[in-house]
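are you around this afternoon, could really use another pair of eyes. what follows is a protein written twice so to speak, once as letters and once as structure tokens for the fold. i want to understand how the tokens follow from the sequence so walk me through it. anything you notice is useful, everything is just below.
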Amino acid sequence: HSSRDPDDESFGFGQAKRELQEIIALADYTTHEKQSPSSKNARVDWWEGRAALDARLKELLDNMSNIWFGGFQGLFSQRWIRPDLLSRFQTSLNVTLDNHLPSRQGSGKKGQQQCRQTILDPRVMELFVSLGDPAHFSDMEEPLMDLLYFVVDILQFNGERNAYDEIDFDAMVIETVDALRQYHEAAKRHKDQSLIEHTVLVLDKELHCFPWESLPCLDGHAITRLPSLSCLRDRILQQQQQRSSLIGSEQDKEQRRFVNRHKGAFVLNPVGDLGATQSTFEHQLSNLSGWEGLTASEPNEEQMKAYLQERDVFLYFGHGSGQQYIRPKTIQRLDRCAVALLMGCSSGKLTEAGEFEAYGTPMSYMHAGCPAVLATLWNVTDKDIDRFSHVVLQKWGLFQSEAVLNSSPTKKSVRSRGKGKARAASPVPLPSPPEGASVSLDQAVAQARNSCNFRYLNGAASVVYGIPVFLS
């Protein structure tokens, strides 16, 4: 982070990573020390402590989004951009530039002719409109200021000289906000806004520990993550092979990866100490047509291998990632691998290995060709993750819609104790899939995160490795 303001404190990668690690360590401590507080005051203190950590993690993600990405948060937008409306916005922005840049205020037409030689790329305009509707954004001043400086830098590079201290950027921001408001008001009148897309994050080996999917600029988006482009290519080829085998069927017309909803397996509460989890899922899992599984019974490696290799969907509700029942090497050697939902603590945590790639359970599943695996980056509490899992399976279409599990109220009057400069933005409402449309696993996860009592401490922990997967 290199701020234009010399008084601004830097917020670097190392600082963010240390803050995340500290939050996770404190969350682990409160999770292990919970042990059913005996007194009312102890329960209140426990809830307030968890709520404070939740707010602290939210502030960290706000800082990452606003300070690291700033005005370039629109790069991750999944909204459809209308070319005609974008052209109209560009005309408005050019008028703003003509009115406020000193290089365009000289006598005669010299300045005007010079500026007309620099035509801004439409992708630069997309950065502006992708920030969202000003009506849903609490503070657009700083991201817009970033982009306006960026535009002036482009013009400087192309020979149009301006002194920054002679430019009234505040007035330019006001006019740009008006232009954005007009763009989005016009866009609302078109149905293109209902388009749903997916984003795949190809992460460096040191970036897997961060819950990128819960950044304000990505929150609510359908997102999966992968360790490499080669891994993405393999899954695209798998999808194409599946499509060629479905010629003549309904799925043949769609560029999607499908798995059979009637060909699944589950392992529920294998150790037998998660009674609440078992009572939450046992009835619906036992009623799934074509499924098999184990409840309150530990599987052996051959059973786990069969579940993963012979089935299309595998659900695990227990401690960890299930690695105690099947070795990573066994998973990696599978000929094929089911879509896996590993709803245990730290089931998606990767171990960093210096110059080498990080390793962990999700990488074993990716190596086996698994289309997608849902896992958690750190330890979570059982009631919240049960509620989250139930909503995911409902929205994905595997479970029948029922009332969501009762939630416990979190404490609202907790001060944030995070570091840095968080500038919270109101979440931009994203279009929902049309009624009756199928929902991918990553879409279901994005929609289910808000069902958690602790939206960040528990909801942000769950991520999807792989590509979008739909039930057939």
Summary: The radius of gyration is 25 Å. The chain has a mean pLDDT of 85. The chain is about 40% helix and 10% strand.
